[in-house]
Amino acid sequence: MAFLDNSGDIILDAVLTDTGRKRLARGDGSFNVAKFALGDDEINYGLYDKMHPSGTAYYDINILQTPVLEAFTNNTSTMKSKLVTISRTNLLYMPVLKTATSSGLQGVPGIPKSPSPTSGGTYMVATTTASATALGSSAFINGANPSSNQYQVAIDQGIDNSNRPATVPIDADLKETQYIVHMDNRLGTLTHPQNGTVASYSFLDDDNIATYYFTTSATTGANNGFAVNIGLHDPNTVPDLGNWTSLAGATGSRLGFAIKASANLADSDFLFDQIGLSSNFSTTGGDYRAVDSIIKIMGGTTGYSVEIPIRYLKKV
Amino acid sequence: MATTYKSLSTNDIVTTKTLLHEAIPITGTIVSGTYKTGDNEHNIKNYTHAMFQSVYDYPYLSSSANHIFDISAGVHSTSHVITASGGSAARTGLVQGLKKQNIYNQMAQVLMGYDSNNDIRLFDVDGDLNAGGTKIKEALFVNFSRLITKDEIKKGSFSMNLGMGVSFASASATGDSFRYRDSGATKSGVIKVYDKNAQNDYRVNSPAGDYGVLYASSSNADVLQNNDNADSAVGLIYYQAGIAVLDAGLFHNSDRSAHEPDKALSRGLLKSTLNDPHMNASGAAAQNEMGGIMVSASIPDVASAIRHRIQNIEFNNTTVLNSTVYFCRAHHNEFNYSTNPTYLAGSKLVVKNDASNTPVSYITTVGLYSADNELLAVAKVSEPLKKDPSNELTLRVRLDY
User: Fold this and answer.
1) pTM (2 decimals)?
2) How is residue B21 annotated by DSSP?
């Protein structure tokens, strides 16, 4: 009789991230592992072949052969896609985060004016008043005075499939109630899309990546009102302005924010020289110095994330 | 409620302590000879203060060089090295007498501590401080680098082979440093200095931590006066400090009355029939025997003489690994979905044809998070692990400190 396979218990060696090392060095007890998450960054589920002629054992043969990279120690470079616990097993649709563009409705009160992505889907941020003046009426976020126009980044959460119609509520366990935003704090800060209130970040890591938290619940403090629920709507009729969304199916919540450019960008060319584009960017109003960055938005509950490309512009 | 994080309870976290050992072999050719051009040894570093000599595993001017150990020599103020023939008169021709005493006192106060009168204790041969007993008054110190000893030397693993051949030359009619000729036959002059049975027999009455007694043995019964027995204690090894203390009498004939200036040494541990090893190329006994060089040679010269006699050194080091193991348990109904962008096409799961299919996901990474969701540590699996409602996984993630 053969021996039983006892290899199911797996021992893994962990490496500290830069944030982990920083907290450990701080020595104030802030290094305290309280929870874990599982990630699948390397997996391409497009390789899952449900129609493989050899049967179910071969559906994931290509996925299981995926080589796995060693651990990154940069805390923002790993665990980008996490596994999710949903006790039900009969889900066929899951919610996503989708940038809301309302090009057909710009100017209508109550509708967030989300800039139409331009230049390869990148959102433009004017870093100075002169830059904003030069950009004129084009779609951009006024980083010098964020509340001066209605342009913002709006992210809608819900099911982007008409088979789950928007006229019925999204399942409660799939509705996002908390958003986590990572952005480069050297370049800018998040502001409220309407009143320009600068949001407070919770944590700034060693790479100057600021982490913001927003919830759909009303809170006291600077981060109130960034995340809101989206109600039911019928996309085939005249939209209820407050509930408009670019999602095709059931909707959950929305995160909206504008960006205030940092003084580093407004008052100095240093970062444009160091991390900016090598040549000037030409668009409405002439040539601009440009720095490209990304803002990562992640659902705190559902875990889904998107990365929004941002281009900071400064008139030459 | 969908969740991506799972809290760890006290039942999921355990701390362990593991001792990791590495074998450290130091060959004599590295210590003396390999990197030599004429009289210039490129891996040996001497200092203007001349208090000790450093040995590297490669020419020390190279960034690739690693520090292996330092050698120094010291004598107690009551040693005959300082006061000729036990009298009060200072030894004639004494070189670096004050520095040799300073080295002895420094090492003794760190390794042996102080007695009830706050006087520095002498190195004791058997570690029994209350019984008086034999003291090491002329000591050779081998201070191993932290780089190779790590947290401590493993008890019972230390050995050092030293050549007691009379001749200094590498090859001569009378043998060399490791062999000698007797009645026409070549015999081994190598002794092994080791911490015999120290894993079961060591001392803890030192301020510098645990230490063991070094004993000497030889395959040639004609070399040592006491071969591998309780009377053959020749030094001490301090495990946590990584320092070996050798009695300079190890290189000296037990018939101490026979020669001047050999009487400078308090002990003689070699067989009385064996002549003292020549510690350098000089001719007269006062210049080339251990008793002589402890008086008339500088500390670096004594160190060079010792290095010439080292055939090899071996020990196991110890690294204390404190680990925290996090048991990351993925139950059957957990982590079966993914937020991977490729997991959905138009919000529909690509791994399902219809809602009745079971979901599946694949694990490549385990992230350990703080309470405020900051990623503190990451562990990777070697290949993707399949997770679906039909299986459960316990991933043991170990974080070493």
Assistant:
1) 0.78
2) E
